[in-house]
Amino acid sequence: MSLRLLMMLPCLLAVQFLSLPQALAGSQVSHQAAYARSQVDFGVDFYIPSDSATDQQTADELRQVQDHGFDHVNLSSWTWTLPTAGSPLRHRVDVILSWCDTHGLGVWLLHNIQYDASNPSDLDSMVADPVSYARPYVKDWIDALKGHPCVRGVILGNEVGPGVPDDLRMTPHYRQAFVTWLQSRYSTIADLNRNWDTAYGSFGEVSAPTKTSPGWTDYHEFAQVQFGQFYGKVFDELFKPALGATLGYASKTNDDPFLYRHCPSATVQCWDDLVANYPMWAEKALTDCDPRPAFNSELHLYHDGYQYYPSIEMTRYRYFMDLLNGERMNSSFNWGDWKKPPIAAIDAATPATLAEVHRLAPVLASLAKEETMARTAVLVSEPVFDASTATIADRPVLPANLVRTAGSSGSLADSDVPPLEEAYADMASTGRPWRFILDEDLSSQAKQLDTLVVPGFERLPSASIAGLIALPKRVTVIWAGPWPTSDEYGHPLSRAALSALESRCQKLPDINAASSRLIDPLMPKSDREIVDVTYSWWSSTRGGYSFPVKYPKIEIRRAHVITGTDVVAVINNTHDPASFPIGELVKRGAAVHLSDASDNAAVDTLKPLDLKPYDIRIVLIKSGPQRPVAGTN
Predict the structure, then answer these.
(1) Considering only Cβ atoms within 10 Å of each terminal Cβ, which end of the chain, N or C, has fewer?
(2) pLDDT of residue 414
(3) pLDDT on residue 366
C-alpha cells in the first residue's frame, strides 16, 4: 500500500461523500429544496448566556465549543424568550451570531413552538391560520438571524408529535379539515363506512375514531398531514423568504420515516433520541428511506443530570455509528453540564474523538452510501414500524450479551423481539450491504432491487400487497415470518390477495432463515452471533431502567472505493471485548489501519483483530478478492 494512495483517499472519497443526498433519489419524497450543507455537522445544545455574562465571557464559551472540535451550536429558545429589538437578549444573540460569523462556527435555532393537541384552543388556531399563529413568536428571531452566514437552519418544536384531539367538537377548524381530507380520500360515505365498520349517514356525522377502531388508521395519517402542514406553512411563508430555502428546516420530533413523508417543507429530518444508546435500527430506517439529511438534535452522550451509564467507548461508538448509518448531524445535550468526574472524563476525551471522526468522515460516508445503494433491502410497512417502536417502554430486563448463533432459533424468545430490531440484527450479521425500504417506495425503487426481505406481521396494508405483487419477477421476494391475516384497517385479507402474495413470495419461517441465505462468502460463519446488549432508558412511569436490544456481536460494513481497494469497518456492538479474524476478509493482498492510534500501520492478517468494548476499526484492504453480487450466495 503506497503512502501516496493513502494521502489521496480522503479526497477521492469526498466525491462520494458529497453525493450522499442523491443516493435515494428514487424514493417518494417531495420537498422544495435540499439542505445545502453536506459536511459533518456535530455540535452542542447551547443555552444563551444570562444578562450577567459579558461579551467576552460569551465569546470565551463559544471558543471552547469550537476548540472541542464541535461544528455548531443550537441556540435554545422558547416563546417567551424572544430577541426583540434593543433588548438585552437581542444584544447577546447579536454577539453570538457575529462571533460565529467571524470564526466559522455554525448556528441552528431550536425554537420551542409546540404543536400541542392537548390544548384544543391552540391546536384549532394552528389549523385555522398557522402563519398568523406563529408570526408573533418568530418575527424577532427572523430579524436577528437574517444576513448572518453562520446560520445553518431552524428547528421548530421540542419533542413534538402529531397528536390528535379527543373530542372534535372542541376543535371546529381541525374537525372541518379532517372531514375535507376524508372527502378527498373516499368517494362516498359508504366507502368510509366499509373501512371503518361504521354506519354514518354523511361525512358531517363523523366523530374522532378511537385507537382500537379501524378508523384510527385514517385519523393517525391525517394527524401526520396536519402536523407537517402547520410547520410547513411557517417555514415556507415566514422563514424561507427571509433566510433562504436552502437552509436546514425541521421539527424536532421522533425518528419516524412515515411522519416525515408528510413534512415536505422540511429540508432536514430532525429527531431527539432521548438516550445516546438508542437502537441503531431506528436511525438506519430513517436515513435509508429518505434522502434528506438526518439530525439528532438532542443527543445525551454525557450529561450531569441524565445518567445513562455513558463511557468514552460508547461516545466514540455513537459518533462513528451516526456516520456509518448516514446521519452526519447531531447536537450533544447540554454544553456546560458535563462537570461530574465521570462525565468530565468523557468530555475530556471528546476533542480527540471528534478529530478522528472528522478525519475519517469521507471514509465513513462511503460506507454509509454503500448501504443506501444496496440491492438487498428489508421492507418497512407502517404497522411493522409502529410495532417495532412501541415496545421499548415495555421491554423486560434481561442479562446482557446472551448469545445465540445467527440463523438458529436460539434460547431467547425471538417472538418478543420487535420485527425491525430483529431484521437489523440478522441482516447486519451477514457482512453484506443492505437497507430498509418503505412500502410506498416499491414501485420507484424496483430497478434498484435484487432481493427484498419482508418481515412477517399480522397486518399488511393493501397498497403494500399491490406493490409486492407488481415487483418485477427478477426481484426475489422472501417472506420471513408469520403470514399476514388482515389489512391496515384490521379487515381479513381476501383469498385472492393471499393467493397472489403467496405465489410471489418465497416463504421462510423468520428473518434468521432469510439472512442465512444472504451471507457474504467472506463473512466467517463462526463469527455470526446475535447477542442481547443491555441499553438504558427512562420513562415517567418506570424511571431509569435497562432493556435488551438484539445486535450482531460483530458487524462488518464494506465499500469498494477505488479500483482494487475496499474500506472495511469492523464493529463491536457489545459491552465486552471481542476479536475478529480479519484475515478472512483480506484473503490475499494487504491491509492497513485507518482508525485510532494505529493509523496507516499494516494489519497483521495472521492474527485476530482485537476489539475493545464498542470498538470500531476502519481498515483499508488493497487487492482483495472480487466482491460477490448482492443477493447471491
Answers:
(1) C
(2) 52
(3) 93
* Residue of higher predicted confidence among 404 and 564: 564
Q: Higher-confidence residue: 416 or 370? A: 370
Closest by Cα among 185, 214, 633, 180 to 431 = 633
Q: Provide the 3-class DSSP secondary structure of residue 34.
A: coil
Spatial separation of the C-alpha atoms in residues 366 and 389, rounded to whole Å:
28
Residue 27 confidence (pLDDT) above 70: no
Residue with cell 446472551: 402
Q: Which domains does the chain have, with CATH numbers?
A: 39-165+225-372 (3.20.20.80), 376-516 (3.40.50)
- Half-sphere exposure of residue 615, counting CA atoms within 13 Å on the CB side? 17
Backbone phi and psi for residue 341, each to the nearest 5 degrees, phi listed first: -50, -50
Q: What DSSP letter does each residue of 133-182 carry, written as one string?
A: HHHHHHHHHHHHHTT-TTEEEEEEEES------S-GGG-HHHHHHHHHHH
Output the CA angle 567-570-571, nearest 5 degrees: 135
pLDDT tens-place string over residues 171-202: 999 999 999 999 999 999 999 999 999 999 99
Which stretch of DSSP H or E encloses residue 357? helix 341-372
CB 597 within 8 A of CB 316: no
The angle subtended at Cα 18 by Cα 240 and Cα 75, nearest 5°, is: 45
Give strand ranges (E) for 178-285: 248-252, 269-271
Q: Give 97 or 627, the one with higher predicted confidence.
A: 97
Average pLDDT over residues 601-621: 91
Q: Helix, strand, or coil here: 465?
A: helix
* Contact of 545 with 309, CB cutoff 8 Å: no
Do residues 345 and 312 lie in contact, with contact meaning Cβ atoms separated by under 8 Å? yes
Q: What is the pLDDT of residue 547?
A: 78
| CA 243 – CA 238 distance, rounded (Å) | 9
Query: Rounded to a whole number, what is the distance in angstroms from the first to the last CA of the chain?
Result: 30
| Cβ-based neighbours of 623, under 8 Å, separated by 6 or more | 564, 565, 588, 589, 590
> 374-429 pLDDT, tens per residue?
999 999 999 999 988 865 555 554 433 333 334 333 334 555 788 999 999 999 99
The 3 state secondary structure assigned to 74-112 is: EEEEECCCCCCCCCHHHHHHHHHHHHHHHHCCEEEEEEE
Q: Are 21 and 368 within 8 A, CB to CB?
A: no
Rounded to the nearest 10°, the torsion over CA 559, 562, 564, 568 is -30
- State the DSSP string of 547-612: EEEEEESEEEEEEEEETTEEEEEEEE-SSS-EEE-THHHHSSSEEEE-SGGGTTPBP-TTSPEEE-
Mean pLDDT of all residues in the chain?
A: 87
